[in-house]
Amino acid sequence: MWPDIKLSPQEASDARLTTEIATQSAVIEQLTGDKFEQVTGATLTLPVTEYSSFVFTPGYRIRAVGTVSSVDNVGTSVLVDAQKYRFHSFGIERLDGYTWPYRSVTLTGVTYGWTATPGDVKRAVAVLVYDALKSSNASRLRAVRWTAGDSTFERSVDGATGIPEVDIVVDRYRLTSRIGAG
């Protein structure tokens, strides 16, 4: 059973808690390469570092796009017809036989991210918040060896955070582990 992670108002004011939740949410997003809140109406400019028919969109689960334009070699922005590209979970593929120009691709009116944050991701953020605010009492989250009666238990803490419960979630949602899969 995972430890209880309650905090009292004396341990964290609303303002401090809000700040720490935002900080630890950003940590989870950085470690997974994913965005767990939906963003709408965004403009994303993606660098194109080589001539290719595919541009990666790391960290974005793109749900909808208004327009796609590219900047060519002389700096001219060109709107790309919607029939000439297709979105995948981790990038945009050019379908007309051409490559994306060697500069950038700009997406406008973009909706991306998760439509609802998964419960285990919320829990992982909560555990990180608890660890940050009660670090002197949170050592059990990082314990590598403990005893109960006549038994001794050990576990590895080789993950990104050193907190096994959080590292399991990070590994589950890490986008880079899915590139090329299925």
Explain the overall architecture.
By secondary structure, the protein is an alpha+beta fold. It has 2 domains: 14-33 and 117-177, no CATH class; 39-112, no CATH class. The protein has helices at 14-32, 119-133, 164-173, and strands at 39-47, 54-56, 62-64, 67-71, 77-79, 85-88, 91-94, 104-112, 145-148, 151-154. The strands form 3 sheets. Strands 1, 3, 4, 5 and 8 form a 5-stranded antiparallel β-sheet that branches. The protein has a 3-stranded antiparallel β-sheet with strand order 2-7-6, with no helix packed on it. The longest helix is centred in the first third of the chain and has 19 residues, at 14-32. The protein is elongated. The model is unreliable at 177-182 (pLDDT under 50).
Task: Briefly summarize what is shown.
This protein has helices at about 15-30, 120-135, 165-175, and strands at about 40-45, 55, 60-65, 65-70, 75-80, 85-90, 90-95, 105-110, 145-150, 150-155. With about 180 residues, the protein is α+β, with helices and mostly antiparallel strands.
Q: Which helices and strands appear, and what pairs or packs with what?
A:
Blueprint (H helix, E strand, L loop, with lengths): L13 H19 L6 E9 L6 E3 L5 E3 L2 E5 L5 E3 L5 E4 L2 E4 L9 E9 L6 H15 L11 E4 L2 E4 L9 H10 L9
Antiparallel strand pairs: 1-8, 2-7, 3-8, 4-5, 4-8, 6-7, 9-10
Helix pairs in contact: 1-2, 2-3
Distance between the termini: 33 Å
Uncertain parts: 177-182
Number of domains: 2
* SS-derived structural category: alpha+beta
Could you give the order of the helices and strands? HEEEEEEEEHEEH
Helix amount: 10-25%
